[in-house]
Amino acid sequence: MRLTLIAALAATSLLTLSACKQATTSDNLASGNAESPAAAAGGIDGTWKADLSSVQLDQKPDQLLLEAGQFSCATCTPPLTLAADGKFHAVTGRPYADQISINVDNDHDVTRTSQKGGR
Q: pLDDT band for position 25 (50/70/90)?
């Protein structure tokens, strides 16, 4: 759920940035680079604000454990246990991944990478 929320916020930020870059100025009008009135009246132009009262977050935090070269997540659905060796390992029951890799970068950082169909 946390990744979904992060992805949604990132997408909103990208849309907001792209709308800011498309603002017309008098310089654009003078040089002939202005958008047509139909394109300027697009449905996503304007200021976007998130309604934080409608956001539903998980009530329980994830329980992640990295010990003796093994990564495990007891609260994941389904629960997950993998070797933290940086290699891809097959997993089942996940809609967006059929292989997951856990790599210990240093004492404070761990990289988790997922693949679906080799991508």
A: very low
Q: Rounded distance, CA 50 to CA 71, Å?
A: 34
Position 62 scores a pLDDT of 85
Residue 32 gets the label, from left (phi > 0), alpha (psi -120 to 50) or beta, of left
CA-CA-CA-CA torsion sign (104, 72, 117, 14): negative
Sequence length of the chain is 119
Question: 8: helix, coil or strand?
Answer: helix
- Averaged pLDDT for residues 3-25: 59
pTM, to two decimals: 0.51
Q: Given strand 110-115, what is the order of strands in its sheet? A: 88-90, 99-104, 110-115
